[in-house]
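Example (one chain per record):
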Amino acid sequence: MSTESRLANLVEGLGNARVLTVGDVMLDRFVYGTVDRISPEAPVPVLRVERERTMLGGAGNVARNLTALGAECCFVAVVGTDRTGREIARLLGEETGVESHLLSTDGRETTVKMRFVAGAQQLLRTDQERTGPLEAELSAEVISRASEDLSASGALVLSDYGKGVLDETVVRALIAAAPDDMPIIVDPKGRDFSRYRGATMVTPNRRELSEATGLLVSDDASVVAAATTVMRTCGIASVLVTRSQDGMTLVSGDPEAPDILNVRALAREVFDVSGAGDTVVAAVAAALAAGFPMADAVELANAAAGIVVGKMGTAVATRDELAGSFRSHDLDDGERKLLTLDALQERVQAWRAAGLSVGFTNGCFDLLHPGHVSLLRQSRAACDRLVVAINSDSSVKRLKGPERPVQPETARALVLGSLSDVDAITVFDDDTPLRLIEALMPDLLIKGADYRFETTVGALEVVSWGGRVMFATLEDGHSTTDTIRRLAATG
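Predicted structure:
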């Protein structure tokens, strides 16, 4: 069995994990739009707002990721007695279903991070918050609530965003209260990692590691040197360094002769890194809580991070997506490009948010011939990303007769996916792709020149939302029906 297949099989076991998460919860708001002019009032871009999204951030995003991976989560955090705090409580119930203990106080303003995004470019972030250490009574309540769940959990996550919930008193009390064999994973903040003494793992990025040690962190050797410094001086068992496009490095064992594991980044397209660190923490914690070896936990976390950076906003990696990311290693390009409608909508949303235009064409594509190749080449040349929808086998039979298709839908998708001009494929069972077109809202609809606007399914709809319709030049002498007829004649 390959390593990838083994890891894919492990993913199901994440459903056996229960993780206690304590930390700073916040609300992430994303305002998406387009920029096509500079303000006459000041030299700043004018963002024409198109849509907004609100989601759980900080420790809340760790909880979201844990439940998306199938793990149970007990969640302890502090919010203000304000509208944002109430919205966080609602989202925790609706999106995660976690066992949450949200402690509220008049002395705090719940943190809101607002990001303004044009295409894939973040223009501005604003933070609205009131931070600082908790009152002694509230701090004691956090410790009490969290300690009650320790015996029922397989791992403890301390998600520290420096907002005041995880002050030194709370951190040290929870680490001391945890059973000796319980994995304790800390997403650290600040320059003093010694307050996390006794933790199983801290997960800094390169900048955080450099600030905590005062060392330059650039290449493999300097990453290991800084990580072992943390282990030796702060009493932390292991350091998992997240390194963006360079993947991750796990340093563990004896600081004088450490074990080192480097894993390369797996993301194919990076649209947004917001919250990726939360995903790493959640995946590692769930895997360790399920009893997996630390090396496997890191591999799972690396794959989960690769999934979320391919999405827009503060996103999660689901258990199915994580298993699929490993199984895709055994697939070729054609199989990787074949997507369900839900997965395709998410992919299209990410493309569009990155400022990429999306084209759509459809057909049976029963026996791929030069005419098809020419149509796809013209289509891809007119857009940034091309979606090809193929009729299901039952749909082809209804349209073409009981002897068709010659090739089943999986084979047709595999052949189409091998072409570089095709970015995504989906299969539809209706006689027409109208429902698909309405769901995806492509910027460009492409059909062959033998069609007319009036007879093209979806043409009116695409134009109605500002898209356009293109009719591609046809290659003479190429037809699937004629090819089948010639084969039958020679048979």
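Caption: The first helix runs from residue 3 to 11.
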